[in-house]
Write a structure and sequence with these properties.
By secondary structure, the protein is an alpha+beta fold. The protein folds into 2 domains: 3-231, 3-Layer(aba) Sandwich (Rossmann fold), CATH 3.40.50.300; 236-344, Nucleic acid-binding proteins (OB fold (Dihydrolipoamide Acetyltransferase, E2P), Beta Barrel), CATH 2.40.50.140. It has helices spanning 41-49, 91-101, 106-120, 135-147, 165-182, 193-199, 217-222, 227-232; strands spanning 3-12, 15-25, 30-34, 56-61, 64-65, 76-79, 153-157, 185-190, 202-207, 210-215, 237-239, 256-259, 264-267, 278-288, 292-299, 302-309, 320-325, 327-331, 336-340. The strands form 4 sheets. Strands 6-7-8-3-9-10 form a 6-stranded mixed beta sheet, sandwiched between helices. A 5-stranded antiparallel beta sheet has the order 13-17-14-15-16, with no helix packed on it. Strands 2-1-4-5 form a 4-stranded antiparallel beta sheet, covered by helices on one side. Helix 2 runs parallel beside helix 4 (135-147).
Amino acid sequence: MYVELKNLNKRFGNFQASDNVGFGIEKGKLIGLLGPSGSGKTTILRLIAGLETPDSGDIFIDGQRVNDLPAAQRGIGFVFQNYALFRYMTVFDNIAFGLTVQKKDKAFIQNRVSELIRLIGLEGLEKRRPHQLSGGQKQRVAFARALAPNPHLLLLDEPFAAIDAKVRKELRTWLRETINKVGITSIFVTHDQEEAVEVADEIVITNKGRVEQIGIPVDIYRNPQTPFAAGFIGESITLSGYGDLHGFEAVSGFDRAVLRPEFVRVTKPQKEIYPHASQRGVIDEIFFRGSTLELRVNLAGQRLTAYQPLDGDAFAVGEEVSVLIYRLYLCNERDVLKVENRSIQGETAFFI
């Protein structure tokens, strides 16, 4: 592993920010630290960077233990959430700052900065100052400044948080392509699931200072390993009394179930495909979500969410519908059990 964290612990007063954190990162990978606010993801980033000191545990980068190395000697580039650009410096000088501190000669700085400006696609803007740039352009400059000294590792703290939604989506693709092109091992912090799934090679889910699950995005999404991961990933709801749902039965030791909208299919009663697996519900609310409709359905006193394509059947609030649930994640305090609707097992069913 290129980066290894072993049994890291960090406490701030009574708050345990890192609780026995340990995982490894392969060279050249782009890793997303994903979790809610206060889950410890930024603390992990700052411990790696040397901006915080662990109470116990070890940090290795390229086989070297770096706990006692100052931040400036760890070979790390850091991109801050608020860009942290020098407002009185030009784009060129901001990118060149680290090289100037390293006392590189002028020719080297000119070539390196010009190369990075081409990489981030800001040719012609070298003499502009930060207030003359858009949010997306500022983020690109911050990224180039972090790359300028040729760091061994790149850390990004919620790099898209201060950017509007449309530009954020464009920058995700740009960041992924650029890091692949440069080939630098990178770790970024986010609380945005869509961002993590779209950008990261692997995701590390954090919660209350602990690592809940590590894996490639599709595996984490399909096979959550802890109750927190099951409930956090996706737009899920938690159900009690899941044994009353058609096609499911209560399992001893599992007191609740996590259900995602894509596991629910709502149809007109006359178009019901699996009558033994379905049951009747009533539509409480309908929301337009751009490319889809979001249906809120009352099913025996429990409110479910389902998606409906715009070109599908039209539904109205108060309408009785057929509800088919394909899959549930059963949970207790420690474990997750994925179960399928037993009434359609062996049938040809459609899963999203």
